[in-house]
Amino acid sequence: MNFYEIFQIKLGLRDKRDTSLKSKSKKKLRVMFIDFWDDFKEDFNLLHNALSYNYDLVHDSKNPEVVFCSVFGSSALEYKCKRIIYIGENICPNFNAYDYALSFERLSYMDRHLRVPHYIWKGFFDLQKDEYKSLRLRDDRAMLDRKFCNIIYSNDFNIESMRMDTLHSFSKYKQVDSGGRAANNIGGPVKDKIAFQSGYKFSLAIENSSHKGYVTEKIMDAFLAGSVPIYWGASDVNLDFNKESFINLNDFANLESALEYIKKLDSDDALYLKMLRANPLNNDEFCENFNIEKLSQFLAHAIEEGDIYHKDKNFGRDVNGGYLGIPRLAKYGTFFIVNRTKRREARYKLAQKIHKIQKR
After folding, report:
1. Are residues 91 and 155 in the same domain?
2. Does residue 284 lie in a domain region?
3. How many Å apart are CA 180 and CA 189, to the nearest integer?
4. Using one digit for the tens of pLDDT, what is the confidence trace for 310-339?
């Protein structure tokens, strides 16, 4: 079984998945999805699929039992019911304003958090496209007879300089085709990122910022395309993906030394194919053994047994240090909170104190 099929099973997209958690009779649950990105689909997303194991969902914007939200707005704070937030950006959860959270953070906070990095959310959609399955299965010659390297990105607002630095540095060796809206050099943005990347031996997968655990869809897209990822971002990315299957720029002293290694791979067919054919997953498992059943269990527990912790939306806004004022930044497309370790630690300590007081 190849890694594409393993991904599908873990995300509940194949008939061979474990269906033991599916309820024979499902309970109706009134839900509201709000504050997500522009092309978010209420009836077709990872949360909806996981919830469908146990619930017959009814979309109700007036009187929901549970609100599911993300960080692209603060409308969820108007609802007094249980709030569950999904965070794919480099923003840590605010447990004073939201009752439960799904995010990239590697943290354990009572029963209120589950790690779901954005590459899993994005993979839920891409793994349903059968045309991508064959991209990694092409013969060796087809894989070797491709262009050198590409990058696709459209956001250049409030991000680290590593993306442009890497593009400029590696272009001194061979042309790096840029197919996004930003720094485009191929005549316009591509329509299908993964199909485009499949025409290249290497794909730059540079995160917007670097933080432990913050691993997005960028590296996953390259894997699905059958292109070796050149990754920069989370220093602990090896916990998510097999270090033998990609180039980790964090392992090199500078871009010059990284480029020398890439040149070696580019000129040594056997060495390149060894990395290309390596299984991206460690022991055929997602990090923390994530699968759709685990997500389904977490959500069911939060809905059926979990407490409502938020008390006042303004209190949450103040403690969050401005995170909930996101609408004023949303027009720029992306926003990132970096260098916020002290703020995060202070917020968690305060949330724990509040929890103890509420339990008295």
Report:
1. no
2. no
3. 5
4. 875 544 443 333 333 333 333 333 333 333
